[in-house]
Task: structure prediction
Amino acid sequence: MLKVGLVQLRTPNEQAAALAQAEPLVREAAAAGASLILTPEGSNILERDKAKLFARLATPEADLAVIGLRALARELSVWLLIGSALVRRPDGKAANRSLLITPQGEVAAAYDKLHMFDVDLPTGERHRESAVYEPGERAVTAEATGATLGLTVCYDLRFPALHRALARAGAEILTVPSAFTRPTGEKHWEILLRARAIETGAFVLAPAQGGAHADGRATWGRSMAVGPWGDVIARADHDKPAALIVELDLAEVARARAAIPALLNERAFAGP
Result:
């Protein structure tokens, strides 16, 4: 059995404060026996104001929260997925980057969020995530604690092809660190997480941001772990910072994929 910890946060708009909030929850998960601990999207900083965000962004090597979380993984001797850190790239642009940290505090894998939330709503409200972040260009799997992880971030959840590609590449656990808004979280969060698990026969681990943040946003919380058969095996029923502990039997992945071999039965097709 693999014991994992999902850390739910309400990340503030400054890195030192973000680390101060995350650290005791990571320690709590490790003390409960978790060998793999995951934090949500934007674990190092959340700031909606673009000018303020860019003024505070740092490279992963210089970001106080990333440095502190890497040191914490090393101290506790755990695998730590920084669900995502909002960081500055060498070219001056920003990235929404998931970082898998080894028990030695090293970066084992990095994944930049592929899908940008760009939308013009009928109400006149307009969102352009691509105006802030440069999207990634490749899907990423990584080995940790004897399991193969497939890395995604938040809005990626709405794109089944990415998760199927990760599963076909061997991912037994799909990670979905998120900061879902309250309206979309209430209507879509659980449904989408369970659908991705069923389609791929994989565990889905979704640590979330939750509550009213310093930058004015409100996120849904309700961090969740879903089994390969689509059953919710652990959930937070609130939006407060917390550590959620769950045990995974990785043999369930093979059993689910043998019962419904959708990944093997998939065929290319023409049209429409």
Observations:
- The longest helix spans residues 182-200.
- The domain at 2-262 is CATH 3.60.110.10 (Nitrilase/N-carbamoyl-D-aminoacid amidohydrolase).
- Residues 210 and 221 are 4 Å apart (CA to CA).
- The mean pLDDT is 96.
